[in-house]
Amino acid sequence: MPVAIPTIRQAVIPADAEGLASVYVSSAAHHARLDPSFYRVPTLDAVTAHYRSGPAGTRPDLLVAELGGHIIGMASLTELAAPSPASMVAPLRTASVDVAVLEMYRGQGVGTLLMQAVERAAHAQGVQRLMLDAAAANDRALHFYRAQLGYRDHGVFLRKDLPADPDTSSGK
């Protein structure tokens, strides 16, 4: 049986708030399983309220994948501040991209469709570079971004959780 192809469209707030929240919480649960010391699963109500509090109307910076009237994935595009004239970073218009797909639809091409659509949207907005942040433990997503979409590693984010009592820190 052929897999149904979702429709990719711009999100509409507040109408899509619950669907967006469902996808976000699903992604949060996935990340919390990967690294519970860093990620947590917010309540569905809190995330829904967050999306409802955003600007009302059609959101060209927020795309959804919809199948049978249900939101099954989303991608967002957030333009980053331009580097100052004193920065060593090349002055290209840059945006951060995030993508999430409900667990039961992962590996079926939904993320690819969303990423292609968000890249077209970025290009239409004059964005010259996309940055993507992924958890180091998320091997499947990293493979997807690198092998299927052509993203490449750019630096490393390091983290150190500080103890509640700074006197017990080793300083290393």
Full CATH superfamily name: Gcn5-related N-acetyltransferase (GNAT)
Low-confidence stretches: none
| Major β-sheet annotation | 5 strands, mixed
Largest beta sheet: strand ordering: 1-2-3-4-5
Q: Please state roughly what percent of the residues sit in beta strands, choosing from under 5%, 5-15%, 15-25%, 25-35%, 35-45% or over 45%.
A: 15-25%
CATH architectural type = 3-Layer(aba) Sandwich
What does this molecule look like?
With 172 residues, the chain is of the alpha+beta class. It has a single domain, classed as Aminopeptidase, CATH 3.40.630. 30% of the residues lie in helices and 23% in strands. The protein is built from four helices and five strands. The protein has helices at 17-34, 44-52, 110-124, 139-148; strands spanning 7-13, 57-67, 70-79, 94-101, 129-132. It has a five-stranded mixed β-sheet with strand order 1-2-3-4-5, sandwiched between helices. Helix 1 packs across helix 2 (44-52). The longest helix is centred in the first third of the chain and has 18 residues, at 17-34. It is globular. The relative contact order is 0.16. The model has no long low-confidence stretch (mean pLDDT 93).
Q: In terms of topology, how is this protein built?
A:
Blueprint: E1 7-13, H1 17-34, H2 44-52, E2 57-67, E3 70-79, E4 94-101, H3 110-124, E5 129-132, H4 139-148
Helix pairs in contact: 1-2
